[in-house]
């Protein structure tokens, strides 16, 4: 990856969901705009706050999609990431998603 770009693969659990009542909601169901969790596979040399292996929250509708070895991935800028789920505490308060 170059500059501030991040390569993300959607997390496997982003498919079917269950409502609080136990109803299965298929991945193809139309819902309001949703953010998705994904796993970072690669980062550019200008990326500061995200590392390979992190889990990030982003909007997949606004990103570029690319297929690598038959699997869908997203290329996005670091600034398009809304949150990082991490247990690293060296630069923060110790709180994490």
Automatic annotation (TrEMBL):
<dbReference type="InterPro" id="IPR011032">
    <property type="entry name" value="GroES-like_sf"/>
</dbReference>
<keyword id="KW-0143">Chaperone</keyword>
<dbReference type="InterPro" id="IPR037124">
    <property type="entry name" value="Chaperonin_GroES_sf"/>
</dbReference>
<dbReference type="Pfam" id="PF00166">
    <property type="entry name" value="Cpn10"/>
</dbReference>
<dbReference type="InterPro" id="IPR020818">
    <property type="entry name" value="Chaperonin_GroES"/>
</dbReference>
<comment type="similarity">
    <text>Belongs to the GroES chaperonin family.</text>
</comment>
<protein>
    <submittedName>
        <fullName>Co-chaperone GroES</fullName>
    </submittedName>
</protein>
